[in-house]
Task: inverse folding
């Protein structure tokens, strides 16, 4: 009897203990990697000049204000797919207010994710490119984004 009460207790309180712990870890990580406002400003200046024009053309339809939707976005089917993409894309990363982006991660993590996606060629998603044949990044755009992300990561590391 006593044993089962104990087990019940653990079952009820276990998740609380776990979540309290992970919350703490989360905050600690955030504090350690918080870049300075000056560092972020520098990254944004470079972003506005070189990268934003590319993002506007190739990424904003999902990660931005969503105003510049492609023609097929009004057709039922593509429309639903597009709306679903936008909702999901913006939840991950929202470019509409410049750098640092609105996101669930840190500025550094965002830069790393952008670098990874562009390196892998997995953004914009393939299903988007199937309908939007000029939506892919050109080699030059690809290089501009990668150079910016790499330089910015270094910059944010140097300014504690
Ligand atoms: C057709 C809509 C669409 C376009 C256009 C698009 N994305 Fe995405 N993006 C998504 C979706 C949806 C996700 C969420 C992950 C998934 O389900 O693939 C995502 C996720 C991401 C992530 C991962 C964020 C994270 O938290 O891990 C990055 C980085 C990203 N996109 C960058 C870009 C860049 C850079 C461009 C332009 C070159 C771009 N995307 C264009 C739809 C889009």
Result:
């Amino acid at each position: 009897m006593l044993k089962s009460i104990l087990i019940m207790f653990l079952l009820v309180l276990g998740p609380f203990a776990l979540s309290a712990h992970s919350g703490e870890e989360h905050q600690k990580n955030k504090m350690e990697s918080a870049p300075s406002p000056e560092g972020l400003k520098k990254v944004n200046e470079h972003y506005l000049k070189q990268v934003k024009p590319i993002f506007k053309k190739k990424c904003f339809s999902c990660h931005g204000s969503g105003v510049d939707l492609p023609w097929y976005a009004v057709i039922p089917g593509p429309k639903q797919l597009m709306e679903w993409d936008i909702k999901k894309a913006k939840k991950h990363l929202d470019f509409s207010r410049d750098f640092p982006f609105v996101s669930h991660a840190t500025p550094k993590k965002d830069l790393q994710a952008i670098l990874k996606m562009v390196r892998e060629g997995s953004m914009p998603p393939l299903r988007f490119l199937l309908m939007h044949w000029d939506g892919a990044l050109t080699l030059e755009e690809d290089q501009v984004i990668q150079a910016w992300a790499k330089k910015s990561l270094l910059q944010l590391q140097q300014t504690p």
